[in-house]
Amino acid sequence: MVxxxxxxxxxxxxxxPRRNDLPYRTLHHPKTExxxxxxxxxxxxxxxLLDYKNKTVVDYxxxxxxxxxxxxxxxxxxxxxxxxxxxxxxxxxxxxxxxFGPLLILDELWHAFILHTRDYVDFxxxxxxxxFHHDIEAIGQEHExxxxxxxxxxxxxxxxxxSQWVARRFASAL
Length: 174
Hints:
By secondary structure, this protein is an all-alpha fold. It has helices spanning about 20-30, 35-40, 45-50, 55-65, 70-90, 105-115, 115-130, 145-160, 165-170.
């Protein structure tokens, strides 16, 4: 089962029956800098984000990963942008999003993108109104996804990014 949010506007905070719900508290009463940063970020339309192309980054990535053709690199880049959009979408709902297993190649591409600092900063500010940070977990303290968490994540991938994205990114795990 997937719970999708519906936008409901309440005049007074006391009228909102969800005010004790964690995603609501996170969005309306951020406590940490990370939560405040998420609120400062805009959330572009997925289609607008996917229109962004960066041949320089894709060329760099494919040069350092010759197992990928230019076309495959472009597809990976689009999938990375979609994952970034999903990350923001899930953050609005109080959910964390991770790069793991079959998605780690997107992390490699993200590193290549970040190395092109001017392009990455321009992209981040243009589409998210702030720098889109690449957070990492300390070695030995990596998050292990529970089965229900993975199921919810995959359902969000299907819902927001589509079955083709899921098939491309998780085909090796199936």
